[in-house]
Amino acid sequence: MTGVPAPAAGGTGRRPAPSGKLGAAAVNQAGLWNIANILTMVRLVLVPGFVLLLLANGGYDPAWRSLAWAAFAIAMITDLFDGHLARTYNLVTDFGKIADPIADKAIMGAALICLSWLGDLPWWVTGVILGRELGITLLRFWVIRYGVIPASRGGKMKTLAQGTAVGMYVLALTGPLATLRFWVMAIAVVLTVVTGLDYVRQAIVLRRRGMAEERAARGAEG
Description:
single chain; mainly alpha; 8 helices; 77% helix; globular
């Protein structure tokens, strides 16, 4: 026995940080430069590159369209992995929460607007899809004080259908494949509308429940 207090024997003389501070430090150490955020940044950088490739040489060159499709495919693949990696390895950051949905909407919005501008896709399709995404974003803010509307299986199917359909439109397809992409896009539009209406239903239910709980809490306090 030396009679030296345990902290001094350890050589630091410092008290260990509380677990809450330690947890916060661990999150901060993940920081901006983690694999999930890097994938999100890659997707953001790909947006202007994708637009330039898609519109190169008038927008109808099959070679440039193939390169644009490759950029779009890479963006979709990174979208599959960045959120999963962030949740699995505790890499969730404020930057990721903001940048990830922005990157998703940016690449999809850029593709839809360019395709409609080139005349490959009707403007009403672009309007329905982008209008739905904007509406759901506003809806989430509308009910955020009462809770979060979780992503549904239908929403994930919608995202997959949209990505597949838009990717097929980016490629210069002809013949049966051009007909197939029409039907894939039709499925994507239907899923876009149906899941959008379901989000509206969930938001109304969540808001009503939250307001009822607030009234009950005020009644209990009174």
